[in-house]
Structure formats: C-alpha cells, structure tokens
Amino acid sequence: MRARASQGRLPHALPYQGSKRAIAGRILRHFPHDVGCLIEPFCGSAAVSVAAAARGFADRFWLNDVNAPLMNLWEDILERPVELGAEYEELWRSQQFDPREFFDQVRDEFNTTHEPRLLLYLLARIVKGSVRYSANGKFNQSPDNRRCGMRPVMMRDNSHPPRAVRDVREHVPARCGARPDLAGLGRI
Ligand SMILES: C[S@@+](CC[C@H](N)C(=O)[O-])C[C@H]1O[C@@H](n2cnc3c(N)ncnc32)[C@H](O)[C@@H]1O
After folding, report:
1. Which of 73, 85, 135, 138 has a CA-to-CA distance to 111 between 20 and 30 Å?
2. pTM
3. Domain 71-156, CATH among 3.40.50.300, 1.10.10.10, 1.10.1020.10, 3.40.30.10
C-alpha cells in the first residue's frame, strides 16, 4: 500500500547544497503516479524521494549517492533516528566552549572514522551544507562561523522523521547504496 503522508511542510533530514526541496513540488508535477520503485541516483538530501513519499507517488524507494558516508548517515536517519538525534545533540552541546576548535576536532575524527553522527554535525555547521573534499578524499570544508548549526530540538524534529521520511523507511528499509554507476542502470 502506498504512503499517503501530509503534504504540508516536508521534512528536511539534513542540510545539503543543491537540495531540491524548494522545487520538489514542481519536479513532481512531471512525475508519473504509477511508479513501482523510485530510484534517486544522486540523492544528497533525498528531497525528491521525501516529497514523492509524502504524495504516495511510488511503492518503494532506493536512495543512492556516490558518497558512502552520506549513505551510512541516511541509513541511520531511517533506521535509528532517535539515537542519531541524541548523538547530534551531544555534539552540538559539546561545541559551546570553542565552536571553531570543536569543529576542527570533529572534522579530523570524521576523516578517520566516517561516522554518520560526525557527518551530520559537519553538514549542520558548514556554509549552506556545501560538502567539499580534498583531492585525497578528506572532508575539508570550513564551518560557518556565524552560526552554530541547527539546534538539536529542530534537528530532532527534522530527522526524527516526520511522516514522509518515515514512509521512505517503511517502504525501503536498508535500500540505500553508494553506487557511482547506478545512474546508468535505468530500470532495475
Ligand atoms: C547537488 S547534489 C544532489 C542534491 C539532491 N538532489 C538533493 O535534493 O539534496 C549531487 C549529489 O550527487 C552525488 N554524485 C556525484 N556523482 C555521482 C555519481 N557518479 N553517482 C552517484 N552520486 C553522485 C554527490 O555526492 C552529491 O551528493
């Protein structure tokens, strides 16, 4: 059975440059309504899948992005949102004494461990969610020093997920991937 979630304010699990959230409604006007599996090959924040889930436009969803740590973060958003929200809150509170120094520590740790909670914190702190990696694959974006990142209560509301993200989870548990070649596969 298809999801029929509220189409009001859509959830926004993570800040991400290039998010299609603002134009998802316009994109979906051109979308067929009888889709079995919606594959979002360059999903980032998965704005189109989230919006499609809210409208019940597909039976199943497959989120894909070449960024493997991002897909591990998506698995946590879908599978353990409560724990992830608590982990984010702990990081957010720990930064208060010296946010810049703390950001650098988290970035170093992320570049070693690729832990999802660390990526969520980094995405919340960088300018406009603009992910940047060095040539040797290290996350090297700087923080937005004017802001301290989304407040935990807001992050929890967003990634705890309201209806549409939950619908994605219910329809495709663990169907997340990091395949750089998926865009070329067409229907699967
Ligand atoms: C502009 S962002 C997409 C934003 C997304 N539409 C949203 O609403 O958040 C582009 C994404 O494509 C991913 N990407 C780039 N090359 C890719 C490839 N060959 N296969 C899969 N994902 C790729 C990047 O990691 C990035 O997350």
Report:
1. 85
2. 0.85
3. 1.10.1020.10
